[in-house]
Specification:
With about 80 residues, the chain is mostly helical. Helix content is about 50%, strand content about 0%. The chain has one domain.
Length: about 80
């Protein structure tokens, strides 16, 4: 039986940066009438950062159920998000 570190490395989970903190549950919904250009700009940059981090993971079946398709779609989103 392999240990946890070996299994994590085998599935590619060691590529994730453990030093970065994930703020799950720290999602703030802003009502439409409160959004101005500054708020929109910050929201857009936050989205870009999150999609870039997901795209860095690559085709990892340990993270994504359909890793190849998800990676392809994330690349398309990365190209399209600049047009916003």
């Amino acid at each position: 039986m392999t240990n946890f570190k070996e299994e994590l490395k085998r599935i590619g989970g060691d590529r994730l940066n453990p030093k970065k903190n994930l703020n799950e549950g720290n999602i703030k919904v802003i009502k439409a009438d409160k959004i101005d250009y500054k708020v929109w700009r910050n929201m857009k940059y936050d989205l870009q950062k999150q999609f870039y981090e997901l795209e860095k993971i690559g085709e990892d079946y340990g993270v994504f159920q359909n890793a190849q398709g998800t990676h392809k779609i994330l690349k398309q989103i990365k190209k399209l998000i600049h047009k916003l």
